[in-house]
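pinging the channel bc i need a second pair of eyes. not urgent but kinda urgent?? the chain im working w is below, pasted from the shared doc
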Amino acid sequence: MSPFVLAASAEMLFTDLPLTERVRRLDAAGLEVEIWDWTTKDLPALAATGARFGSMTGYVRGGLVDPGAADELLRTAERSLAAAEVLGCPRLNVHGTGLDARGLPVVPHEVVTAADLLAAARTLERLAVLGERHGRVFTLENLNRAVDHPGVPFARAEETLALVAAVDSPHLRLNLDLYHAQVGEGNLVELCLAALPHVGEIQVADVPGRCEPGTGEIHYPRVAAALAGAGYSGVVALEGWAAGDPATALERFREAFTPAVPDGAPGAAA
């Protein structure tokens, strides 16, 4: 049995099926379900599946820096909280700025200044207060600029981690996406161990290709062993495509994150 709470994205698996059927498949596999833009979904129909929804997009428009964009992010986060109530979803995910349908920033922001970081932290403080008021957790996700999201601000995990740590609220946590981190930074085990005090969930996919563990260069069983050895028992979510059969992809994901902690692993008992 995995020591983690396992989840998977209904947006990226069983894509030949209607969304409600994808959700049922993931739920039947014993996984939490994650979705993206809730505004395009039939929320009552999804709720009627009885699935456990773990994460969804927590805003519709806006960004962290510009005052007008920050106000819009907060306004649409209020709407997202109401949607999360329908699904019983505990975590709502946000990014450094709004993304279009291709994952590109609505307003590109190539250079992040110290003033930008301060403004973003203030926006996230407001978001954390909103989360506390509604009993939900917002998660800030790191992305990558090189392949998927060019021009996105606060993309690197070191930036998102610094922002979450600065706010220091249980209602604002880090969504540590290891696919994006490998593309942009690498050194995943040390990154995980440094980030764990601020992590709300961890998302995974292999590089290149963004498919399930075992299809690329990341040795996810080693990452899983380090996480388990450090005492992490939270959510690990597959946010990746299936290289072939989706059911096989889920099996490979589950196998990679059902580790034994080897002697001498970081975080293992001495």
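so The radius of gyration is 18 Å. and The longest strand covers residues 172-177. — does that match what u expected or am i reading it wrong
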